[in-house]
Specification:
12-stranded antiparallel beta barrel; two-stranded antiparallel ribbon; 55% strand
C-alpha cells in the first residue's frame, strides 16, 4: 500500500538555498492509499485488491511553501500494489482479525536542472519495492453508526537500495506503522459517510549510512454518498470528496554528505516537510459480486520542503467469501 521509494530530490545539486532540501529523508507511506470506507473491513474470507498510483510533480517548494526559483524539472513515479487480506469468520477480542500484506512494483523518474547553469541531474529505477506487512489489525462495529479498525504494520526494506545510487526503488530502512481507520455513518441507511485514516511512521537507520529518517504522521479523509444505480441495490455508485495531509513530526538524525567533495549536512538542520491535498473519489460497487472498482484524483495545494504535484489512484478489490453465504430465497 505504500511505495517504499526514496529518491533524493536533486541529489547532486549543492547551490545555496537548494542544498537544505537535498538531505530530506521522506517517509515510506505514500498518501492516496485510502479515502472513502476507511474503517470498513472486508467480509470473512480472502480479499485481493490491486491499487495503481501515479504521482507527478514539476515544482519543488522550499520550507516556506514557495517554489524555489531557478530549480525546475519533473519528478514522477508509478506503483502497482497487490494487496492480500484475510478475515476469519470468528471474532477476536470482540472484533474481526484482518491481517494483510502488500507486494509493490515501483517505477520512478527524476529530471532536474538549475536555470542559468550547466548543472543537471536525472535518475530513475524500477522493480519490486519494499514489503508492507500488517500482521495485527482488528476491526469493530460499534452499533450501527461506526466501523473502526486499528493495527500495527512493518515495512521490510526488500526493494533495491544502494546509498548514492540514482536507480533505487527501496527506502533502505525498516519502518514501523501504527494505523487506524474510522467510518462514521451519518445517515440511518448508511448511505452518507465521514471517513478518516491515520498512520504514524517510526523509522530505522538507513542502510549504509548513519541516518535515521524522522517520524511522520499522515491523515487521509473522505466524505461520501452512495447512489443506487438499480432499484434492487445490486449496483451502486459512491461519490465523495477526499484528501490527505502528511507531516514530518521529528528530526532525522545523522549526517549526509552530498555533492562533489562530500559536503556534510546534519539531518537535524533540515526543515520539516509537509503536504496537503484535496480531490475526488468514485466507487462502482457490485455487492452481490463482492466487487468494488475505484478511481481517485488529488491535487496538492500546499507543500513545504518537498515537491508539490498531483496523485491519481485507480484499482479494484474482490472478496472470496469463506464460508460462502447461503443463497437468499
Amino acid at each position: 500500500m505504500k511505495i517504499r521509494n526514496a529518491i533524493l530530490i536533486f541529489a547532486c545539486l549543492v547551490l545555496g538555498y537548494a542544498s537544505p532540501l537535498l538531505a530530506q529523508q521522506k517517509g515510506q507511506w505514500v498518501p492516496g492509499q485510502f479515502g472513502l470506507n476507511a474503517g470498513v473491513i472486508p467480509d470473512p474470507g480472502v480479499t485481493y485488491a490491486n491499487l495503481a498510483l501515479n504521482y507527478s510533480a514539476s515544482q519543488l517548494n522550499g520550507p516556506n511553501g514557495n517554489s524555489i526559483p531557478g530549480v525546475n524539472g519533473t519528478y514522477s513515479f508509478w506503483v502497482d500494489e497487490n494487496i492480500f487480506y484475510y478475515v476469519p469468520k470468528h471474532k477476536f477480542l470482540g472484533g474481526y482479525f484482518m491481517p494483510y500484506i502488500a507486494l509493490t512494483y515501483a517505477n520512478g523518474e527524476l529530471v532536474a536542472n538549475i536555470t542559468g547553469t550547466n548543472l543537471s541531474t536525472g535518475g530513475g529505477g524500477s522493480g519490486f519495492a519494499d514489503l508492507y506487512v500488517q500482521p495485527f489489525n482488528l476491526g469493530w462495529h460499534f452499533g450501527k453508526r461506526v466501523d473502526f479498525n486499528a493495527g500495527y504494520a512493518f515495512v521490510a526494506p526488500t526493494g533495491q537500495f544502494t546509498q548514492g545510487a540514482s536507480n533505487n526503488v527501496g527506502s533502505g530502512y525498516w519502518g514501523n506503522d501504527i494505523t487506524s481507520g474510522t467510518t462514521l455513518y451519518i445517515t440511518k441507511n448508511k448511505g452518507t459517510t465521514a471517513n478518516l485514516v491515520t498512520n504514524w511512521e517510526i523509522h530505522g537507520q538507513k542502510s549504509g549510512t548513519n541516518i535515521t529518517p524522522g517520524e511522520a504522521f499522515t491523515m487521509e479523509w473522505g466524505l461520501g454518498q452512495v447512489l443506487p444505480l438499480k432499484k434492487d441495490m445490486s449496483t451502486l455508485l459512491q461519490l465523495g470528496l477526499v484528501g490527505y495531509d502528511q507531516w514530518q513530526v521529528s528530526h532525522s538524525s545523522g549526517v549526509l554528505n552530498v555533492g562533489v567533495g562530500g559536503i556534510p549536512i546534519p539531518e537535524s538542520s533540515i526543515p520539516f516537510y509537509s503536504v496537503h491535498a484535496i480531490g475526488v473519489q468514485s466507487n462502482f460497487i457490485l455487492p452481490g459480486k463482492n466487487l468494488v472498482a475505484f478511481f481517485k484524483y488529488y491535487d496538492e495545494y500546499r507543500a513545504l520542503a518537498r515537491p508539490e504535484g498531483r496523485t491519481f489512484v485507480f484499482g479494484f478489490s474482490w472478496t472470496l467469501r469463506i464460508p460462502k453465504p447461503a443463497a437468499k430465497p
